[in-house]
UniProtKB/TrEMBL annotation:
This is SaeA fourth Fn3-like domain-containing protein. Residues 1-26, 434-455 are annotated as: Disordered. Residues 7-26 have a biased composition (Basic and acidic residues). Pfam families: Fn3_SaeA_5th. Residues 684-761 form the SaeA fourth Fn3-like domain.
Amino acid sequence: MSTGFDEEYKREVLEPAREAGDQPPEDLRVRYRLGDPLRPGEVAERVREVRQCWRRARGQLKYRKLIDRLEAEHRELTPLFTAAERGDVGPLAERLRGGAERTARRLADARARLDDAAGALRLAAPGEVEELARAAGIGRAELEAAAAAARIEVRDPDPLPVSPPYAGYRKVRESLDVLGCRHLAEFLFGERAAGPLQVLGGFAAPGVPADPTALPEAVRAVSDLWARRTRDSSSTHANTVLVALRSASPDDLILYDVVARLRERRRQRASEAALLRHAVAELGIEPLDARRLVFAVLRESGPGGGPAERLRALLDAGEVYAAAVLGSSPPEAADEQEHAEAELLGEEARRRVAAAVRLRDSAAGEPDPDRAWRMLADALALVRDLPGAEEHQRRLPPHPVPRVRATAEGAGVRVDWAPSPSAVGEVGYLVVRRRDRPPDGDGDGEPVASDGTGVLDVRPPVNVPLFYGVVARRGEAAAPIVCAGPVVVRPEPQSVELVPGDGAVTGRWSVPEGAARVVVTREGRPVPAEREGFREQVPNGFTHHYVIRAVYVDAEGRAVETPGVMASATPNASPEPVRDLVVEGDPADPARLLARFGQPASGTVEILMLDTPPPWRDGALLPVAEVRRAGDRVPATPTSRGLALRPGGGGWLLAVTVAGEVAAIGAWHRHVNLPPLPSLVAERRGDAVHVGFDWPDEVAEVELTYRCGADEDEGEGRLVVTRAAYESRGGVHLTVPPGLAVRVAAAPAGMRQGARVLGPAVDTTVEAPPQVRYDLERSGPPWNRSLTVRLTSSRPLRVTRLALVRRAGQVIPQRREDGEVLGAWDEVPVPGEVSVPAPRGRGPYWLRCFADDDVELVDPPVRRLETPR
């Protein structure tokens, strides 16, 4: 399978399905990349390729759930693909039509739900579209296209202010109500604010210039107007509104005023249509702005904006100290109920802060750092933003580790320690290393990466005394250091390898850094060696044990030997290759093969299975490891008939002779992994031979060959039978010449690597039945005639069952059932004769004998069979 197919399938099938909530495509043509029209061979091959792509894609976590669903549904679809592989694509075609209908229904349902979500505003949020697409099991892009066709706009809600830009907005709202103004814009512009107004992205009205100075100018004009009026209660309320307009941005204040009125109607359980009508007809908002405002208000998590809401948000976020500060002088609330709620929330925040401060002050005088840490943790649980508590907690060190141990391990040092007794907070550990003396603290020495309560220092200095210290840390504080040592690292020789040969052993190794030399002994006796290897002549057939030691020179000039690396080798004579290899099926076990070859004089024979032809020449001597990397060793059992193999797959069977670490390349055999046909049965039925066998599941075709008689010219044939044809005809029927034996052979067939291959063949022979000739004789007077059947043959035998049949009229009987049985005899000897009374009656009739299939009955001349009247 090419990488290009995998990438294309992921892009066009898996990614859209994953975006649709791991919903497999309903259309099987898309899921399995099926062509049109459906062809049995192409369907089987395409399904195999797609499932291989599934197995490779499952290694990626993002596809795992989707692939599991695809595999689960594939088990339900297996009968459809099995029928298609056998030539019947009807069920699969019917399922394809049903899949298209289900996909259409799913899309229609998603469109209906989107239409409900959009409502009268004809607006929907991107998150809503994605959720609906996932629930329906379709792609988001497909649903967005449907939204565009239905004139539904998909957009994010506009951000709306959550708090008033002026703290005294509640008083402003009361003053506007007293003055009879629908909103701030009407107070500023009067009749010019009748509509339509735009408030999103800046204020705009039909009679107001599109100028940044228009609103400040309007504020000054209204101020001058009210300054000229007589002072009364209305002037007081107007001044309240004007103070707000001078203190905050008029744009922001107008927008918040409109939004607050819409939120108020929403709290009163107004419907979507009622909110839109209120915004357009009563507030005079431009229809497009009104739709966007109502859409944003309806998608808000809550009305928000008041002091109580701000206090509650701070408390929910754990910022209790900030809530207490805000509650000490809360902003003016929009109504009395909200003001009272803000007072209660502020009081709760102050109580929690007071309790947390007491815990913080107690922790400051606590000598046990763990107990102080717990107090501060309780204080922070009450007030997460309590000043000074988190900083104090970070400066509390844990208890030191009770024990540290350092031991040399190969070329490194293993350091482990008991954990700190401190059970609170997140305690970490820092390991430092120093030569010649213990480290004084976490900054005195070289740090070593650590994990948990142990670490392996993989590259420490060698042949010098090393000390290790462990520091327990919690936050920014560190406990006193605890040390271990000294430990001296003297690595053994690395990559030690002994190679046995014919009467010799060769040794190789890598000298460790810092070692002066390497010494070798065999069974306690020194072996001459160079710095990086040796070669010694030794007897074949015996195992020789060696010890390879590194020698170091310490600070006082003394030579110190390591314990050493032990290794063994058994030299042997060179292996001889297998020159002849015969592999054939085992008649006793169809799943097994028998390999026969001449046993070589030296070495042990192994059979390897390779995916490609062996790349080595016959007789080549190679390292055993190299040969075994090229293939898999086939399990083999010695038997009296040869080596019994169970290869388990197809490929090249290679005979390898192994002696020690050397392998000799021998003969090989191409093995096709097609099982033999069990239970081959051939029966002769007149001029035909019926052939039957059990059809293995993994076999697509069977090649049948047959030969009639000993002479090749008598008759020979070959035909390829598919499983569908075999099952529809109830077996294979061969027309053969009479009187000749027929030898039938059947072998499984298939395609491997683009070539047609045959599996092991099984055969059987159907012998020709013996010929028996007969003659009919009529004797006796007319009133007492008899019919005598005389039988002759080239050799004596017995006919299992013989019947004489009479048929009136002009047509000779062709079967025993075509007429009246005048006589029937069992076990009739040949040569011999049998008699029956002649039939009575008028008119012509025919006589003919019939026998079972164990003999071939030869009729006399036709005139001997017809009796005229």
